[in-house]
């Protein structure tokens, strides 16, 4: 994948570039910029897949730069020395957030996340999984491809998804179940920014459709349709942290 670095500290940008060249061979560094204007020109010219973006730029911020990019622009990995920016970074749907000085293992993990999001985006283009918006709250829809065409469902009607190998089952408020021949992992980048959470390797739940959470080793969530959904032990801490922000 093609990458650019946006950082107003030359030493920091060079250190990141060195890490990419030495430890992340699947990334091609297409250029670097030291401020928002240079970054915009570079991004428009080279059309990168991912930007490694410093939060604090000379006279601007990385968040200001993001507002000038199109919705279908590159993936973003924030880099900063200030941990307090993490929450805002993820609210912008950034793929990851790296604290300086960046470590090789963290960088490889961030690149893996970017690669997964790019893979899902490519799958959406191939198979017709998409999101479209209506004007008005609660009208955002997801289009699910089937052998006959597309099934459009409101996001607000989706209670949870269950993955089973190469298939994903969508459970709706009207007790309808829709089966799609895709792995549940392909829907995670699509749904998580829209109020869903991957509580288990097999489940993506609509946080607005939870009735209660029952503690345990991982615990489980009771959804609005009365069904219980397991929370994996590995995802429990992140899930509970998310609940405190709802």
Characterise this structure.
- With 246 residues, the protein is α+β, with helices and mostly antiparallel strands.
- It folds into 2 domains: 2-126, 3-Layer(aba) Sandwich (Rossmann fold), CATH 3.40.50.2300; 132-245, OB fold (Dihydrolipoamide Acetyltransferase, E2P) (Beta Barrel), CATH 2.40.50.1020.
- The protein is built from 7 helices and 18 strands.
- The strands form 5 sheets. It has a 5-stranded parallel β-sheet with strand order 2-1-3-6-7, with helices on both faces. Strands 13-12-11-15-14 form a 5-stranded antiparallel β-sheet.
- The two termini are 35 Å apart.
- The model has no long low-confidence stretch (mean pLDDT 87).
Can I get a quick summary?
With 246 residues, this protein is α+β, with helices and mostly antiparallel strands. It contains seven helices and 18 strands.
Topology record:
Layout: E1 2-6, H1 10-23, E2 28-33, H2 36-46, E3 50-54, E4 56-57, E5 60-61, H3 62-67, E6 75-80, H4 86-91, E7 96-99, H5 104-127, E8 130-132, E9 141-146, E10 149-154, E11 158-164, E12 167-172, E13 177-180, H6 188-191, E14 196-200, E15 203-206, E16 210-214, E17 220-223, E18 228-230, H7 233-245
Parallel strand pairs: 1-2, 1-3, 3-6, 6-7
Antiparallel strand pairs: 4-5, 8-9, 9-10, 11-12, 11-15, 12-13, 14-15, 16-17, 17-18
């Amino acid at each position: 994948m093609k990458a650019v670095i946006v950082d107003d500290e030359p030493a920091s940008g060079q250190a990141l570039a060195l890490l990419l060249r030495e430890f992340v061979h699947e990334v091609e560094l297409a250029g670097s910029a030291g401020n928002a204007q240079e970054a915009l020109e570079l991004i428009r010219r080279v059309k990168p897949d991912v930007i490694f973006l410093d939060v604090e730029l000379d006279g601007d911020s990385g968040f200001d730069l993001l507002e000038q990019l199109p919705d279908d622009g590159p993936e973003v990995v924030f880099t900063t020395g200030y941990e307090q920016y993490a929450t805002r970074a993820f609210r912008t749907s950034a793929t990851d957030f790296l604290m300086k000085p960046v470590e090789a293992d963290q960088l490889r993990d961030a690149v893996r996340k970017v690669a997964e999001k790019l893979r899902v985006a490519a799958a959406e283009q191939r198979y017709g999984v998409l999101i479209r918006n209506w004007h008005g709250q609660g009208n955002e829809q997801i289009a699910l491809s089937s052998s006959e065409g597309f099934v459009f469902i409101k996001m607000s009607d989706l209670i949870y998804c269950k993955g089973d190998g190469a298939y994903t089952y969508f459970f709706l408020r009207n007790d309808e179940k829709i089966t799609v021949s895709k792995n549940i992992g392909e829907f995670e980048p699509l749904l998580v920014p829209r109020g869903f959470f991957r509580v288990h390797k097999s489940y993506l739940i609509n946080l607005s459709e939870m009735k209660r959470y029952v503690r345990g080793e991982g615990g489980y969530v009771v959804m609005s349709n009365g069904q219980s959904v397991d929370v994996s032990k590995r995802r429990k801490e992140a899930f509970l942290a998310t609940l405190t922000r709802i």
